[in-house]
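Running this now, will post back.
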Amino acid sequence: MTIRLPDFTLTAGPTPASPRTLAALGQPLIFDYDPIFLERFRELERKAARLFGTSSDVVLLQGEAVAGLEAVARSLTRPGTRALNLVSGVYAKWFGEWLRAFGAEVTEIEVPYDQALDPAAVERALSSADRVDLVSMVHCETPAGILNPVGEIAPLARAAGALVMADMVSSLGGHPARPDEWGIDIAVAAPQKCLAGPPGMTMLTVSDAAWDAMRANPQAPRHSFLSLLDWKERWIDGGREHFPYTPSVCDVGGVLAACDEVLEEGIDAVIARHERAARATRAGVMGLGLSLWPSTESIAANCVTAVRLPSGIDGARLLALVRERYGVMLSAGYGELADKLVRLGHMGPNASAMHPVVAVAALGRGLADLGHPVSIGAGVEAALAVAGEAWDR
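Update: finished.
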């Protein structure tokens, strides 16, 4: 059987890239020390800093964001490190496992994966602890479609004297991300979500305090693919002339093109577009007669909408049917949520007027084909009503 590409990839990422980004990925391979590439790399650092709104150092680490997150955990952790890990989903739980593996004494605040973190609970934990060296959290838990109030929690952690790490892998470009203003020492993002770039790179901001902590850590990786200190010493402090290892010249060109598109549209306009697409999708899902996974709509993310699977519906069968019959690729749940929900992505180019309508219609039609009662017309009308706001202005 021949498997064809879907007509619409409306998933939790990677996100379809624009023709401009695809063209940039197809540029000729050049020597990484060619002056053209050196300036291209420096330019990407500057533009990533603009997207983050940061004056801290930016590190472009080769490797998808999981590599970057592991690099951060290794660089900041040693036996005796006291970490407060805030868990509202799969990725935050993983980060805590890394911290333990590298010797940290980890305390966790964990909420059900359909809820967001509570700043008051974090404040209580910080005030009752003798010492907290590191607070870690995820801004947007993509597997659950949940947004956490990082902007409220990070200042509490900073005031308690802790370093703050925030996973912003899927939120950068879809939600406001202000590491400097919020007091985040390390923010970790990636280009393949709301920025609509290629996967294969981690974009980090690192404060002076975080660099000091890494230098003081004898376990921090050096001469390693996961070494942040190598980038600091050889590239940033070395005059941005010598890489620790060969970066992917193709990825750099593609990510630069994706960042250019976001900056030319305007970061606030891009965030507003993602917010509207998310509202349209949620309205459509509820119009179908389905329930959102987040316990309240107020904590739902702008990048992906998580939908509770109706009783008796096999998620894998549903998604396979929607892809094969209607040419629409949606996402399953992830980890322990795999059989509990499906996800409709609306990131990058997919955060535009009609894509939420396509996702809602395909989901509704697939459920109807499996015998579950849905109001497809009501769902499509509800999504269109919100999506049409873009044309009413």
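The first strand starts at residue 8 and ends at 9. More later if anyone needs it.
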